User: Fold these one by one.
Assistant:
Number 1:
Amino acid sequence: MKFMNIQEQAMFNLSNMLCGYSDTRVWNFIPYAGVGFLRNFDDNVNAHAASLGVLNTWKLSRKWAVNLDLSFNISDDDIDGTDASHTVYGTSVAKTDRYFTAEIGLTYNLGKATWNKVPDVDAINALHQSQLDALNAQLADANAENDRLNNLIKNHKCPEAKTVTVKEVATAPVSVFFNIGKSKIASRKDLQNVKAMTEASKDAKFVVTGYADSKTGSASYNQKLSQKRAEAVANELVKMGVSRDNIEIVAKGGVADLTPISYNRRATVEIK
C-alpha cells in the first residue's frame, strides 16, 4: 500500500525541561504527540490519524547525532481499503487501523552548532558609561586638588600643608561572565578588573552576586547555577588575598535584567 502521512506534532525535550539545558549532553529524550491525516493512494482513501512517540538522540559530535524514533499510530478503519467493522450486540462498531514504527538514522546540523561566545566585559561597561564618567570626573578633581596642595608644599607657601592622598573612589560592580549552563569562568580576562579592585581595597567587604538567564533552564536549576557562579568568583577573590570572612555571596537565580539575555550569565563583584 502506497500512503502518505501528514501530521502536526508537538515535541517536549524532557532532558532539558527536567535537568536544564546542556550543550554537552549526549542523550536527549523527546516525547511527542501529533494529529493529521493519512492518504491511501492505492485505494484513493483519506483518513484521520494521530500518533504518540518518543525521539531519542545521541550526540556524536558538534554536527552529528544518531536518532531513534519510536511511534504508535492510529487512524480510521478504512485507510487500508477494507471495512474492519464488526457487530457488538447488533450494533456495527468500526475498528481502527493501528501500526508501530521504528526509525533509526543520522542527523546533521546544517546551521550553527555552538552558542555565541560569552560577551566581553567591555560590552557591559558600556551600559554603565555615564556612571563611570561621573566617577572618573570625581577622581580627576581629587587628583587636581592633590597636585595643588603638593605644589604649595614644594614652593613653601603653605608650611602647614600636608600631602593628601586619594585612597579610594567608589567603583561600579565588576562583571565576570559564564557560558550557558556553566559555572566555570569563561574568560580569565574578566578577573583583571576584579584583581584591580581587590588590590585597591583588599581589607574591604565584598559582595559577590551570581545570576543566570531566566530563559534557559528551570527556576530551581537557575538558582543553583547562580549560587555556583557566585562561589566560583568568591574562590578567585580568596586566591587574590581577600579573607573569606569579608565575602558575602548572593544568588539571584534566573533574571532578564540585561539585553541580550546572554549578558545575564554572570556574577558581579562590588564593595559593600
Number 2:
Amino acid sequence: MPSQHPDQIGYGHVVKSYVTRTYGGLPRYLVLNNGRFLSPRWWHTTRFTRHLIADATAITDEELEALLGYEWRSRLTAAWLIGVDRRERFRARIGDLLLASEVCHSGGAYCFALARFGTHMDAEILTAYLDRYLPRTDLHYDQPAALGALLRLDALLGTHHANRFTEPDGLWDEWVKGVGHLGYPSQTPAEQGRWADLQCEFANGWRRL
C-alpha cells in the first residue's frame, strides 16, 4: 500500500503533534528509535515519558491510522503509542506492517507493541515473521527485535516458540553468519531478549508515573 501524507486525509496535525515534538533538541521519533529515554542519565527522560503516556492515552484510533499509513518516522511513533497504551485492536494492522516490512526502522517498534500485548497471537505473528525473514541472510531487517520480543513472550507465556530458531547451527546462527558481510555486529539471542525486557519493563514503569 503506498504511503499517504496525513494532510491528504484531513489529519495534517498528527506529525507535528506526535512525531516531531522535540526533547533535548531531538524529535520524539529519534529518541524512540535510539533508546535515549532508557538512560537514567538523560535529563529529559521524565518529561519525555510523561508526554508519551499522555499522548498514548489521548491519540485517537483515526490519528493512529493516519500515522501508520505514512512514512517510517510516523509508523514508528504510532507503534510505540499503540504499545504503551496496549491497544490490542491494532494487532492485525501491526502484524501486517511487520510482515510486509515496507519501510526501514519502524519494525522494532512493531515488535515492541506485540511484546507489550503479550498474548499467544502476538507470539504467532513474531514466529511468522522469523519464519519468513531469518532464511533471508541477504537482509538485515528487524530479525533481532522480533527474536527478542518472541523470547520475552515465551518467558511470559511458558511457551518455546523461539527454541527452533535459536538451536545451535539453526536459523538464527545461519542468519547471523549470513549478514556478517553487511557490517552488522554479532548479536546473541540473550542480548535481544534483555533489550525487549528493558523496553517493556520501562513501559510498565511509565504507566505508574
Number 3:
Amino acid sequence: MTFTQPTTTNHSSSLKDREIALHQIYQQILERQPYGCERTLLATIEKDFLTNKIGVKRFVKEFGQSEPYLNTFYYTTSNLKFLELCFKHFLGRAPQHHAEIRVHFDRLVHKGVKQLILDLVDSEEYLKAFGCFTVPHPRQPNCYLSPNVYLESNLLNEEQIGRRGRSLPTLYWRQLGLHCDSGVCHLPETYEDIQTTMAQEDLSQVFKLLQYAPAEQVLTTLSPQQKAVLRQAIIKST
C-alpha cells in the first residue's frame, strides 16, 4: 500500500492549495478526476470549496451524495461491494469483520445511501482520522484487528475501479477461496483447495450474512461447488 503525506487545508489556504486538495479528494473518493459533464454537476460545490466557503469535510460529505459518485459506484455495484468501497473512500480502510458490514448494510437498507454517507463522514472515526481539514486517504494504523484486516485493506486501497469485480467484497472472496484479481472470480484448481482455504467458522459467518444481505446478490456469485460446501457447513453447524 502506498501512503503519501496527507493533504490539509484551512481557512488561510491559497487557491493553489485548495486546487491540490480538490484533486486529491477526487482521486481518493472517485478514484479518478471527474469528466467534463460531471464537473458541470459539481460546479457549485467546487466553487464553494475553492472560494473557502466550505471546508474539506463539508465538500466530501456533499460529493459523496452527488450523482457523479453514486453513478460510478452505487448504481453499478452490489450493496455489499458498495459498502466496502465506502469504507475505502471515506475511512481509508477495509471493513474489519462481518459484524461491521451488517451494521452498515442495515443503515443502507433502512436509511438510504445518502444517509449512509452522512453517517460515515460524521462518524467519530472519521473525525479522529481526518478532522475537518484533511483529505481522506489510505490509513496505516499502529495495529490491526487481525492479519486478514491488514491484507484486505492493502488489497482494497490498491485496487482500481472494478478490477476485482463489482459484486463480492474482498472479505468474502478471500474466505471463499476465489481468485478475483482479473475482475472475474475463478475457482481454485481443485475442489479440495476450496475445502482447505475455507474454514468452517468462516463459512458460518458467510451464511449469517445471507440473513442480512439480499440472497440473490450473494448466491449468484457462488459456483455449484461452493454452494455445496456452504450446505455442508450449515448441516454441521446445526
Number 4:
Amino acid sequence: MAQDDVRAAVWTAPVHVTDLSCVEAVYVYYRQAEGRLDYLRAEPQLSACPTDETETSPPPPAPVTEPAPPAEAYTFRKSAWIWETGLWREDPSGLLQRASDGGYDRLFIALEIEDGVVAHQDALAAFIRSGLAQGVEVLAVEGDPRMVTPEGLEYALGRARAIAAYNEARPEAPLAGLQYDIEPYLLEIYKADPAGVLEKWSAAIRALSAAYGDRVGAVIPFWMPAAPGGMPALTAASPSIRSLTAMAYRTDPDAIASAASGVLAAGQELGLPVNVALEAGPLEDEYLFVYRRSPSGELLLSPDQGPEQTVSLFSDAVHPQGDAAAFSYSHSVTAPASRVSFLGDGEALEAALNETRARLAAHPSFAGIALHGVF
C-alpha cells in the first residue's frame, strides 16, 4: 500500500470485494476489553455501481418459453449442533424428545476421545439407537482452527481414526457421518495469506476424510466462495466432502437468502448439497465504527489481486495514492445481536425458518437448515 508517510497502521485486515470503486463505506467491528479496543473484522458497504447494461436502455424482453423442469431436489433436513457432550450423555431421552418435537431429524454431537479411543461408547451407541428409533440421525462434529497447522492436523487425524474405529467396532450403532467446522480465518496467519490458509484447509479436509474412511461434511462461512483461494479450495476438497453447511448467521429471511446465495451456487457447481446454518443461542451486541469515502481519512482500502482488498486503519488521517481509496470516520453504532441470532425466541425462529425454506427451495443445491445454540 502506497501512502505519503511511513506511519504504521493500527490494524489491518483482508476484505472481500471485487470492485473497490463500488465501496461507499466500511464498517469496522470491535469489542471493548480491559480499556482497549479489539478490532474484529471489516465489512465493505457497496453502492450501486453503473454498468454498461444499466447505462443504456434495457434489453428487449426474452421470448416466452416453457419453464425448465425442476432440478432433482435433496431431501430437506433440519439439523442442530450439540457441542456440550453432557447433553446427550446425561439426558439422552429428553434431548431426543426435544429434537423430535422440534422437527429435527439430524443431530451433530461432539465426542470425548481419551487415549485415542472414543469415550462413553455404550452411552453413545444407546443414544444412536434411540435416535434412529425416533427418526433422528446422529453424526459427530469436530472443529478447531488449528486443524490447518501441522500439529493441529496431526491431533485431528488421531481423533478421526478413533471415530472410524468406533464405527467399525459398533456396526449395530454407527455414527451416520462426521462433520468439520474448522474456521481457519480466526487465526492470525489468515490475515497475511488468506488463499494459502484456505489451501491448507482444503488439504486438511482431504486428509481427515482419508483418515475417517469416508467423505465428511464441511462447515464454511457464507463468503468463502468469493474469498481469495476459496473456490479453488472447495473444488480441490469436493471429492472428500459429503455436504456443505453455510454459516449465514442472520435473522431476516432476505438477509439469510442473500448471505447463503454464494455457497448455494458453489454447491450446485460442485454437485454438493448445501445446508444453511442459523444461530439461535445467546450472543453479545457488537459495536462498529462507520468510515465513509473521503479524499483522505483514517482508513485506507488498498487493492490486492483478485477479489481481495486490504483495510488499513491509522490513528489519524492519511492520503491515498495509486489505486487506494480513503475513508474518514463518520460515527459509531451498536449492532444488536438480534441481527445475527434469534436469541432463544422460538416463535421468531420458526417463522423465519418457514419463510427462508420457501425462498431457498428454488436452489437445486439447497438441502436443509442447521441450527446452532437451539438446545
